[in-house]
Amino acid sequence: MAHPFWHGCNYPWSTDGTTIYYGLDFGANVWGSHLGVSTRRPAIERDFAQMAALGFRVARWFVFADGRAGIVYDDRGLPVGVDSHFFADLDTACEVAAGAGIRLALVLLDHRWMFEGVRDTIADPATGALLEVRLPHGRAHILQSSAGRAALFARVFEPLVRRYGIRGERADLAEHVLAYELMNEPDFVIEEWERDVSAHVPRPLKFEVLAQMVTSLSALVHSCGPALTTIGCARLHNLWAWDDPSLGLDVLQIHSYPDTRHPGRDLDPATTPASSLGFSKPVLLGEFPGDSAEQHPPNASPVVQPMDDVLESAVLGGYAGAWPWSFSGTDGYGRLPSAPLAAFARRHPALVNRRATGSP
């Protein structure tokens, strides 16, 4: 199957080196402040200039994450719409990306949307002090009810997708949105996939519910313009479920974090060409550790795969791309090394950003 190789990375949210803006890049947040990218445009421009210099042409970016920012809720906790800052932030993101020659793969929800009782740390916008907080309440009930799902689509997703469609208010930015992704790693929230369901998800979703949401999003996206749809699958043994043509997905996406304690769990593009998987859609390696030999969480026992080798295997194996985790480097996997990206750019100049210099 002929398809492009999209050379990209996981942004996947911004940081200033102190504050991690997970779920805070777009819109005002539930704690009463606005820390979105339109308030920090020069810093975001520097990030995208660095990603372009590293050769990337796509950046995967989380939008609503666990629901902590960007959405206004009614007294039942159902979405009323996006807030007054949201589109200023997302317009800024698209404009900055366009200026760097980068297209965005927008991840609408993280699987943490379904979490309950999880503490988090945010920075006080006035003092910068780190505070331990909880979301006021979880967002699982929105996806659990037909009324919640309908409100989320009609009042949040549809205005967003249409705005950046070919007939939308920001049609000038349509070509800079490569894809929409309903949820990052839904494996951890699907009822039937019992061995993968997170302990933080007391009420997982039935697969048919999430599948209908994927179908609806695909139809919406395709009706508005050229953007693609995908979904980030965490476990190779679940990827088959997303190959159903009725879902309307354009690209299947698998994440791979090989671990010596879990042989056979994760995809190895060096030994598994995309065609051997037997799927009807192009396959994207949407996440893999960028520097596992030097940087990984203390609870991981990684199978060391140099980024250069993974990228080359993905090209030779017919994958639609291989996006290392992560540019921001805000977790145990750290930031991306520049040397293997420079080597890849020298070997494949036609695949990389024309601004590529090999160093950020």
Average pLDDT number: 94
Order of helices and strands: EHEEEHEEEHHEHEEEHEH
Q: Note the main sheet.
A: 8 strands, parallel
Spans with pLDDT under 50 lasting ≥5 residues? none
Task: Walk me through the topology.
Layout: E1 8-10, H1 41-53, E2 58-62, E3 71-73, E4 79-82, H2 86-99, E5 103-110, E6 119-123, E7 130-134, H3 140-144, H4 146-163, E8 177-184, H5 207-224, E9 228-233, E10 252-255, E11 283-289, H6 307-316, E12 322-325, H7 339-347
Parallel strand pairs: 1-2, 2-5, 5-8, 8-9, 9-10, 10-11, 11-12
Antiparallel strand pairs: 3-4, 6-7
Helix pairs in contact: 1-2, 4-5, 6-7
Provide a brief overview of the structure:
Helices cover 24% and strands 17% of the residues. The protein has 360 residues and is α/β, with parallel strands linked by helices.
Structure description:
- The protein is α/β, with parallel strands linked by helices.
- Helix content is 24%, strand content 17%.
- It contains seven helices and twelve strands.
- The strands form three sheets. It has an eight-stranded parallel beta sheet, covered by helices on one side. A two-stranded antiparallel sheet has the order 3-4. It has a two-stranded antiparallel sheet with strand order 6-7.
- The chain is globular.
Task: Output the keywords.
360 residues; alpha/beta; 12 strands; globular
